[in-house]
Amino acid sequence: WAGFADDIRAIIELKKQRNAVILAHNYQTPEIFHCVSDIVGDSLALAREAQEVDADVIVMAGVHFMAETAKLMNPSKTVLIPDARAGCSLADSITPADVRLLRERFPGVPIVTYVNTSAAVKAESDICCTSGNARKVVESLGVPRVLMIPDEFLARNVAAETDVEILAWHGHCEVHERFTPADIAALRAAHPGVVVLSHPECPPEVVAASDFAGSTARMSEFVAERQPQRVVLITECSMSDNLAVQHPKVEFVRPCNLCPHMKRITLGAIRHALETMSEPVEIDPSVAFAARRSVERMLAV
Ligand code: 13P
Ligand code: SF4
């Protein structure tokens, strides 16, 4: 931690000068998550909290679609992304033109879009969802069939829990698609009694082999409430690092996979963002209204 002290002190001072708050996703490294963030959470919590921010500046310690969502929900604020290259393989897997083609191919079928997408894709959608509310959103529509884009595995995991027929796209999270049921069998053999929590972006066979599946916030709640003796989080590595700080009695078994996009956000990048007010996120006015409507419909569910 000592190596981070200079950046941490500078960021805390810059936040005051700029009247800024830092929103951080659960996959941010512990020095960001625990030392400089004002609000932490999963994608759903960050979208909700962004709406409530009163400060002039929001720094999104997360990936680009999260910063776009914050800007959509609170357009009068300056929203900074410390590294504009922080993307997401799911967001990259689908374009607005793809969504328009899906609508032509499946007329009348509502399009439920994971928040891990660009604002332009959200604008072509009927409603958004996150991993924390996907089933609820799908069932709220009261229809027998929906399109759920772009995460194939999230769609198939939700399909396993609901009677609604779900048509999926072929996007995958490059972090979660790499986990296999064989990994889980090996972990259980090597660490008897380990409780296995997985993210719903994992393949359905991985979720089926786990003890619990849920969004990053649900995983945190599970650990906080149940205090398992040994747990493995089948997700991005910083989840375990952050929870291990809060729950020293719980043994966190690895492995995990790193998200290269989340890892572009560093203390140095946050400090630079606040020093230079870069990079501000702007949303094309032609898509902002419709994209915001999709997110607001989700938040109303
Ligand atoms: P959560 O909404 O569960 O935090 O997930 C976001 C994400 O990018 C997972 O890979
Ligand atoms: Fe995207 Fe996966 Fe990284 Fe989450 S973990 S930001 S879904 S690539």
UniProtKB/TrEMBL annotation:
The cofactor note reads:
Binds 1 [4Fe-4S] cluster per subunit.
Q: What is its main location?
A: cytoplasm
Cofactor dependence is on:
[4Fe-4S] cluster
Q: Which UniProt keywords apply?
A: 4Fe-4S, Cytoplasm, Iron, Iron-sulfur, Metal-binding, Pyridine nucleotide biosynthesis, Transferase
Q: Which GO terms describe its biological process?
A: 'de novo' NAD+ biosynthetic process from L-aspartate
Q: What EC number(s) is this enzyme filed under? A: 2.5.1.72
Pathway given in the UniProt record: Cofactor biosynthesis; NAD(+) biosynthesis; quinolinate from iminoaspartate: step 1/1
Q: Give the residues the record marks as binding iminosuccinate.
A: H25, S43, Y114, V115, N116, S131, H199, P200, E201, T216
Pfam families hit by this protein: NadA
**Gene Ontology CC: one annotated term:** cytosol
Similarity comment: Belongs to the quinolinate synthase family. Type 2 subfamily.
Question: What is the documented function of this protein?
Answer: Catalyzes the condensation of iminoaspartate with dihydroxyacetone phosphate to form quinolinate.
The protein's name is Quinolinate synthase
